[in-house]
Amino acid sequence: MRKLRTVSLAAVALGLWGGAAAAQEIVAIYKSGTQQYFIDQAEGFQAAAEARGYDSRVINVELDSNLAISAMSDAIAGGASGIAITAPDQALGPALATAAADAGIPLIATDDPLMDEGGNPVPFAGFDGVAMGTSVGEKAAELLVESGWLDGESYGILSVEVQTLSVCEDRTNAAKEQLTAAGASPDAIVQVPYDGTTDASLTAAGPLITANPQVDRWVVVACNDEGVLGAVNALGNAGFQPDEIIAVGLGAYEACRPWAAGLPTGFKAALYLSGTDVGAAAANALIDSIESGEPLPLNTVADTTIVDPTTYADVMPCE
After folding, report:
1. Does domain 129-273 have CATH number 1.10.10.10?
2. What predicted TM-score, i.e. pTM, was given to this entire model?
3. Any alpha helices (H) in 211-274, and if so which ranges?
4. Which CATH code, of 3.40.390.10, 3.40.50.10190, 3.40.50.2300, 3.30.390.50, is assigned to 24-122+275-302?
5. Reported confidence tier of residue 3, pLDDT bands at 50, 70, 90
6. How many whole angstroms separate alpha carbon 276 and alpha carbon 57?
7. pLDDT computed for residue 152 by the predictor
8. Long-range Cβ pairs for the range 178-183 (8 Å, 24+)
9. Do residues 298 and 124 lie in contact, with contact meaning Cβ atoms separated by under 8 Å?
């Protein structure tokens, strides 16, 4: 956090205090700051800011739209030179964009795209949702075909979806397209609505699993690792064994934990996303814009990698 200093107005005006001006501050606001992905993203954001001589501050709003608006106002009032935000609701885009424009500071949306009041995209740093879902779906389809479940087994597909968030729908819709293209029946798909958290996925998946007693094998895809984890836990509660589950995570930070511990798990693969890279990209884009006076690039897209129990350690840490 910014350190408070008491200096004379004359010294500030002349730029004489300490021989240099105080460092500028950039702020990151995250909708779910306690999730590992956003913890990683915050670390990347702060490390990049520090490396370039900027102060930084991270604010967690835990899916609360009112807190997000307040955090934005507080950041502007506190003198932020630029703001990155993963908003809890994409409908906040016009209000957030207007606030930043009125303050004359750059705003970048991270992870979840936003639109301004004119319907124009706010500059974005993150991942391509369709490409992510396609990768997850391709891997899930590959594992489903290899399993032989398509040849006579009674299988189902749990598609765990944040149905109010376009970037999540991009992911799960693309995953479902790949599964059906590989021969899975659209009738096998069971949609599980949740809010992006593990507990919500667990709670929503349980009754839907119970309502389909004819299914003895399940494929699981979701908007994030938390969604997959909740559904896998619900399947475990219902008596399903790891070899009766093909779950492909999206994030890999939850999937890798049983892999690292050598535990049997329904997670058979996952798409690794580096939150650290997104945070650093957002910070650097903001700082470049602040220092050059040029607009932010419209899109800064990070790479992704499919990992499994045998390959994850080569490309990612597991905490």
Report:
1. no
2. 0.81
3. 225-237, 256-261
4. 3.40.50.2300
5. very low
6. 15
7. 79
8. 178/133, 178/134, 178/136, 178/137, 178/138, 178/140, 178/141, 179/137, 179/140, 179/141, 179/144, 179/219, 179/221, 181/141, 182/141, 182/142, 182/144, 182/145, 183/145, 183/150
9. yes
